[in-house]
Amino acid sequence: MCSLVALAFLVPLGFSLGDQSRQEKLADAARRSALVTGALAASTDPEVVGRAVAASADDPALRPVVHGIGGDESGGRADAAALARTRADRRSLVTDVPGGLLRLDPVVLGDQVAVVEVFVPDRVLDEGSGRRWLLLFAVAAALVGAAVIVVDRIAARAVSATGELVKAALAVGDGELGVRVEPAGPRELAEAGYAFNRMAERLVALRADERELVADLSHRLRTPLTALRLDAEALESDDTSIGTFSEAELDRRRGIRRIRQAIVTLEGEVDQLIKTTRKAVSQETGPATCDVSEVVRERMVFWSALAGDQHRPHRVVGAQLRIPAPVARAELAAALDAVIGNVFRYTPQGTAFEVAVSRRDGWVAIRIDDAGPGIANPDRALCRGASDQGSTGLGLDIARRVALQASGSVSIDRARLGGASVVMLLADPEATPRQVNRFGLVGRMARDVREQKSRRLPRRR
């Protein structure tokens, strides 16, 4: 293709150069004719004219021939018609003859008109044309070679960019949504690379949204599950190992046991679903931050409904302003659900609880207080898998792991309400962390309130 383009450009150029050379040869013939014409204007003496003719060219074949003054016209090639036309028109005439070209120039000598004939043979006209065409073909070959090199480099870039795009597309097809390409190559391929990256980012966002939706739906299942579990626990004992029971009583107690076991299994499956989807989302989206106040308000919407059914007084403190924390929103929601769920699980119906949020000294504190019996052994409660209440003991461990992700900690103290106070400390991403009391600001606030009340109450004797 490149060769054809080069030839299409150079062939007309070659013919143009040939025409230019031909014009130069005709101009040289006009110069020789002018020498003889000048001599005729000075004298028509055959000897004078002969000397001018001899001086015009070294090659006898190129010397002019004068017609119409009675001299030697034996070398002339012009026919009578061409001579007559030149005399009649009194204008120079260039005509083709066998072997070359003729230039006929009229010279007015009184009442007669002489004609100077100059012959330009083909060998003179073609002189240098071979070198010209050779040069042109050399230029064409150089252009073709350069074009091949340029096209090869462009094609190599295009092939490389296409290969990278294909590899990335196959990787995305295999589930590696983090793969991206570096847009390169021709403009169209570069645009395809940018479009591919946007598509991959959109797929990541869509899958994260889908998993967030699954996790949110799972969170919503926790409220009715907790209500079912509490209702099941309110039923009579399911123990069949002590005492004598009728067949009907045994079936009833076994049914109660199956209901309780099914609820526990379903709660475990929901927790596992939430953890699995949250982990996948955190791995795909990377490190994230969230608004603690927003998460607390959102989760309390769900727990408030169950608290109303069980006549539990509750309130939220300090969740009006934005308070950032270096933990994924989903992880913090799971930790809150775990701790608040323990309040509903291990305290009687009607027991009050409180959720407070504060920010100070480079830390964000989340406190969940209740008015229940409290936790007898806080250190044991914080150990993974340990519980004195017959549960799996993973609720506080979930909160502890989330706090550790945010460079914080979890602690247990006696609450102002009389029961347990679970405090989650999270590093403030917008401040320099400083060492403070492990109970944080909300812990100090709770102790200050207790001290003020103790000062106001009279001492018993």
Task: Report what the structure shows.
With 461 residues, this protein is an alpha+beta fold. Helices cover 58% and strands 14% of the residues. It is built from twelve helices and eleven strands. It has helices at residues 2-42, 46-56, 80-89, 122-125, 129-173, 187-234, 247-285, 292-309, 329-346, 378-381, 395-405, 440-456, and strands spanning 65-67, 93-97, 100-109, 112-121, 290-291, 314-317, 324-325, 353-360, 363-370, 409-414, 420-427. It has a five-stranded mixed sheet with strand order 6-8-9-11-10, with helices on both faces. The model is unreliable at 384-393 and 455-461 (pLDDT under 50).
Topology (SSEs and partners):
Blueprint: H1 2-42, H2 46-56, E1 65-67, H3 80-89, E2 93-97, E3 100-109, E4 112-121, H4 122-125, H5 129-173, H6 187-234, H7 247-285, E5 290-291, H8 292-309, E6 314-317, E7 324-325, H9 329-346, E8 353-360, E9 363-370, H10 378-381, H11 395-405, E10 409-414, E11 420-427, H12 440-456
Parallel strand pairs: 6-8
Antiparallel strand pairs: 1-4, 2-3, 3-4, 5-7, 8-9, 9-11, 10-11
Helix pairs in contact: 1-2, 1-5, 5-6, 6-7, 6-8, 6-9, 8-9, 9-11
